[in-house]
Design brief:
The chain is an all-beta fold. Helix content is 2%, strand content 24%. The chain contains one helix and 17 strands. The radius of gyration is 22 Å and the shape is globular.
């Protein structure tokens, strides 16, 4: 996918770039039977208190129901590639031989008219879903299940892919994730062949603050420009250091480098190599 760079007709346009959709998107309006209303909460919990800061506003969007489980073994045809405002990847609209429609995350190279399959006997082609036991070692995969039948939980963002490294005798497979982490996943878990589409997503430059507001993200104020009563980094004459051994949150907790993962997490035994291992 190419990106379009604007001429610097205004300060906001100077560095802005947008993806060129016309070669990929084939349908502008989503399938009516596969969308639901997406409510906004502006970062507030059931008591009305802000629990996630910097949320609010944004464009009104509807949620597209994605088939992450791929339970149907009936062959389906790709009838459209669409934009999804809820994720970075594109989505593909499928219609199987029984006339049932569904959405899947579109892998790179999937085009309108292609046939996709789900099941142990499916070919190793982009968009097909198979158990890890039936996928050759070294294949690039995406949309991976962690528990059989629960639906894809890993590797779902634009441009990412994992790699099946090996299959073990204990019914587990070693998979290298996009972060570099290597972990065990059960061989009866499903995965989709190929790399997620919209590869150039990370090269797009927002260009102006308004585009971030359209996403429902409100401004973030630096703690260093606040007063001491408002933030641990605040106060001082002119541009001052933070005044602490480490950066802090507004509530005085360590902000950068603090490990928040539970040391007794039950899934630790499935991690072969950490993403930040040297």
């Amino acid at each position: 996918m190419a990106t379009l760079k604007y001429k610097p007709t205004t300060p906001a346009r100077r560095h802005m770039s947008v993806p060129v959709y016309k070669d990929i998107i084939t349908k502008d309006v989503p399938e009516k039977s596969l969308v639901v209303i997406k409510k906004k909460h502006a970062g507030r919990n059931s008591y009305g208190r802000i629990t996630v800061r910097h949320r609010g506003g944004g464009n009104k969007v509807k949620y597209r129901i994605i088939d992450f489980k791929r339970l149907s073994t009936v062959p389906a045809e790709v009838i459209a590639i669409e934009y999804d405002p809820n994720r970075t990847a594109y989505i593909a609209l499928l219609q199987n031989e029984e006339g049932v429609k569904s959405y899947i995350i579109a892998p790179e190279g999937l085009k309108v008219g292609d046939k996709v399959y789900s099941g142990a006997d499916a070919d190793i082609k982009p968009g097909n879903a198979l158990p890890l036991a039936n996928i050759p070692v070294g294949t690039f995969i995406n949309s991976i299940e962690l528990y059989p039948g629960k639906g894809a939980q890993l590797v779902r963002s634009a441009g990412v892919m994992a790699q099946l490294i090996s299959k073990e005798a204990n019914g587990m497979a070693q998979v290298r994730l996009p972060s570099g982490e290597v972990r065990f996943i059960r061989l009866d878990c499903k995965a989709v062949i190929g790399q997620i589409g919209n590869i150039d997503h990370d090269t797009v430059k927002v260009g102006k603050a308004g585009k971030t507001r359209h996403k429902g993200i409100r401004p973030t104020v630096r703690g260093s420009v606040m007063n001491p009563c408002d933030h641990p980094h605040g106060g001082g004459e002119g541009k001052s250091p933070i005044g602490h051994a480490n950066p802090m949150t507004p509530w005085g907790k360590p902000a950068l480098g603090l490990k928040t993962r539970n040391k007794k997490a039950r899934t630790d035994k499935f991690i072969v190599r950490r993403r930040n291992a040297k």
